[in-house]
Amino acid sequence: MDFFETLLKRHSVRAYQTREVEDEKLEKIMGAGLHSASARNRQPYQVYVVKNQSLREKIVQANFKANFWMKEAPVIMVICINASKLPNQGTYEHNYLDAGIMTGNMMLTATAQGLGSCACAAFDKDEVRKIIDIPKDLKPILCLPIGYPREDKKGKFDLSKSYEKLAHFLTHYKKRKINDIFKIK
């Protein structure tokens, strides 16, 4: 698959097969993260790759109820940023940008290998910190489930209340055009 095909194919996957993700594929995803652009190449992040089922189940419990589907993912990456400003290292806010660039690269690499992912920021950060013993100088900002997409659920996200279905539809399936976002002057 070429690069632009990968860009267009990437979407948030919320239903996974039970099939394990091969170590070689995870290594490529981690390599894409390692080689991501970051301000002054500081790489102000740490990623915990959680494959242990018991730990994954606890992480899912620490996620808000709308993320119940994460329980199917065979891998959950917990992305953390350096929580303090280091001397002469830019601002703390840059850490979020750098982590976002890294996460985007990892999600695209997952897609290129036939895997799915979905960045989730709605979780109890303190609880996840305890579950996987994250040091105080790191702040968990994203849970990134990764796995093989379930084709039978492709494009479907069934929540129990109709207003939640409508909110999801309006938020995630709105088709914007280039001119809606990019303004050429």
Q: Would you kindly provide a brief summary of this structure?
A:
The protein is built from seven helices and four strands; from the N terminus they run H-H-E-H-E-H-E-H-E-H-H.
Structural summary, described in words:
The structure is a single chain. By secondary structure, the chain is an alpha+beta fold. Helices cover 39% and strands 14% of the residues. The chain is built from seven helices and four strands, in the order ααβαβαβαβαα. The protein has helices spanning 3-9, 23-34, 53-62, 92-112, 125-131, 162-172, 178-181, and strands spanning 45-50, 75-82, 116-117, 138-147. It has a four-stranded antiparallel sheet, with helices on both faces. Helix 3 (53-62) packs antiparallel against helix 5 (125-131). It is globular. The model is unreliable at 155-163 (pLDDT under 50).
Termini, distance in Å? 34 Å
Which strand order spans the largest sheet, edge to edge or round the barrel?
Answer: 1-2-4-3
Low-confidence stretches: 155-163
Write down the secondary-structure element order: HHEHEHEHEHH
Give the integer mean of the pLDDT values. 85
What would the principal axes of the Cα set say about the shape?
A: globular
Please give the number of β-strands.
Answer: 4
User: Which structural class matches the secondary elements?
Assistant: alpha+beta
Estimated radius of gyration? 17 Å
Question: Count the helices. How many?
Answer: 7
Fraction of residues in β-strands = 5-15%
Proportion of residues in helical segments = 25-40%
